[in-house]
Structure formats: structure tokens, C-alpha cells
From TrEMBL:
GO MF annotation: an example: transcription cis-regulatory region binding
GO CC, one annotated term: cytosol
Residue ranges of the annotated DNA-binding region, renumbered to this chain: 128-225
Keyword terms, alphabetized: DNA-binding, Phosphoprotein, Transcription, Transcription regulation, Two-component regulatory system
Domain OmpR/PhoB-type: 128-225
The protein's name: Stage 0 sporulation protein A homolog
An individual GO BP term: regulation of DNA-templated transcription
Modified residues (4-aspartylphosphate): D54
Recorded superkingdom: Bacteria
Annotated Pfam families: Response_reg, Trans_reg_C
Response regulatory domain span: 5-118
Species of the source: Luoshenia tenuis
UniProt xrefs under InterPro entries: CheY-like_superfamily, OmpR/PhoB-type_DNA-bd, Sig_transdc_resp-reg_C-effctor, Sig_transdc_resp-reg_receiver, WalR-like, WH-like_DNA-bd_sf
Length: 226
């Protein structure tokens, strides 16, 4: 049996049926799991191209499933949660989620976000998708960062954000512009999404005398090359 395009781990069977109806109509294959532990097992047996992951799950909660997946895989993950508090959204991003959607949501909105992710995953025309600076190489072809000669794998959204900023050195972008360029859809003004990813990038990149991701107060961010 071929691996599904999408694995949905959610204990709300009504939502699962609705999402399955919409996604299969669009040509996606969808596999369902209604427990965190069984969903994680299904993921390991047949890794999909994308995961829809509920937070409140029996067996193993969504945060734990997310942590386990991120130990070995960089597959895009959209968190589905009934909790709309900023803390829950930021926690998901901190743990490596690529996106989140608060229930109840419109199936069309979920579909739009899935399409945006798959568009970014579609191979482009062959070209050198590598950006190099002293002590830094960003390879978007295989999603590998090399810093001070050491290879480092980042979650997809982090390396896409770094690649975009580094590809426009010394140019300032607002959070909204970065959401549009990197995420490909509107986050409804929640700029914390960009802030969290920048924070995680800074922690991993450390300090360098030649370049840095700099905050331009009151505006946004830029990749500053000295």
C-alpha cells in the first residue's frame, strides 16, 4: 500500500469525515488515526508528505506526537487545536510545527493552507538553490544548513525563512511581508509566527562577525551582511 499524501490524527470523527471528503475530492489520499499513539505508529510505518495533528488526543497528546516526529522527520505539520490562546500557538511553533489552525475552521481554509505547503514542496526548475556567506551555506535543494563547516538540519519553515532573508541581504521586511513570501498565506496578523521562527534561528545560528538576522524596531527583520 502506497504511503498517503496526508495523515490526519484527530479524535473528532465528524471533523475527520468532513476533511476526508474535501481532500479526497481534490485528489489527495488521506489516512486517519483517532489516537495519538496509533497515529504515531501509522506515521512510522508509512510516513506521509504532510501531517494534520490535533492537540487534545487520547493515548498520546499532540505535543508529544509532534516531538517524536521531529526527532527523525522534517515533514510539514499543521496543528489543529480548539485552543486559540497565543501560548498554544507559540508552543506548537517552538516544537517544530509549520502551521496551526484553530477549530472550528472552514475546510476551504485548511485546503488553502495544504495547497500552499504542497506548492512549496513542488520541485522547481533545476538550478543552484544555494546561498553562501562566510561560515554559512543554505542549501534549499536538500534543506541542509552548513554553519562553520558543520551540517545542521532545520525544520522546513525555518530554513525557508533564512533562505529568503539571506537571499535579500540588508533588505528590511515587515512580518506581514515575510508571512506572505515564506508561508504563502495570511496569518491574520499574528506576527508571533515570524518572531518565534526568528528566535529559533538565532539560537541555532549563534553569533558571527560577518552576518546576522537583525531586528529593525518598529518595522521587522533583515539579514544584515557587514
Amino acid at each position: 500500500m502506497a504511503a498517503p499524501d496526508i495523515l490526519m490524527i484527530d479524535d473528532d470523527e465528524n471533523i475527520c469525515r468532513l476533511v476526508k471528503l474535501y481532500l479526497e475530492k481534490e485528489g489527495y489520499t488521506l489516512q486517519l488515526a483517532h489516537r495519538g499513539d496509533t497515529g504515531l505508529q501509522q506515521f512510522r510505518e508509512q510516513p506521509p508528505q504532510l501531517v494534520l495533528l490535533d492537540v487534545m488526543l487520547p493515548g498520546l497528546d499532540g505535543w508529544s506526537v509532534l516531538r517524536e516526529i521531529r526527532k527523525t522527520h522534517r515533514v510539514p505539520i499543521i496543528m489543529l487545536t480548539a485552543k486559540g490562546e497565543t501560548f498554544d500557538k507559540v508552543l506548537g511553533l517552538e516544537l517544530g510545527a509549520d502551521d496551526y489552525l484553530v477549530k472550528p475552521f472552514e475546510p476551504q481554509e485548511l485546503l488553502a493552507r495544504i495547497r500552499a505547503i504542497f506548492r512549496r514542496m513542488t520541485p522547481e526548475e533545476p538550478q543552484d538553490r544555494i546561498i553562501r556567506y562566510p561560515n554559512l551555506e543554505i542549501n534549499l535543494a536538500n534543506y541542509v544548513l552548513t554553519i562553520h563547516g558543520k551540517h545542521m538540519e532545520l525544520p522546513p519553515k525555518e530554513i525557508e525563512l533564512l533562505y529568503f532573508l539571506a537571499g535579500h541581504a540588508n533588505q528590511v521586511f515587515t512580518r506581514e511581508q515575510l508571512l506572505e513570501q515564506v508561508w504563502g498565506f495570511d496569518y491574520y496578523g499574528d506576527s508571533r509566527t515570524v518572531d518565534v521562527h526568528v528566535k529559533r534561528l538565532r539560537e541555532k545560528l549563534g553569533q558571527d562577525d560577518e552576518w546576522q538576522i537583525k531586528t529593525v524596531w518598529g518595522v521587522g527583520y533583515k539579514f544584515e551582511v557587514k
